[in-house]
Amino acid sequence: MTDHSIKGKTVLIAGGAKNLGGLIARDLAAQGAKAIAVHYNTSATKPTADDTAADSAKSARVAVANRPSPALPITAP
User: In this structure, are residues 45 and 18 in contact, taking their beta carbons and an 8 Å threshold?
Assistant: First the structure.
């Protein structure tokens, strides 16, 4: 039988700091994944990111990304 566990794997969720993306990040983190949510607005994401990290024993992180840039620079909030 194949193991489909995501425990310990890193997942990237674009638009993942609020609403549906935030729920997905929390769920994946609860399943043991290292969830990284990428969003474009720090002021909108900070409260949700803090809640997600608290709910998932610090296995979720949020990064801010500039979508139009092809290099996708990511900065830690």
Answer: yes
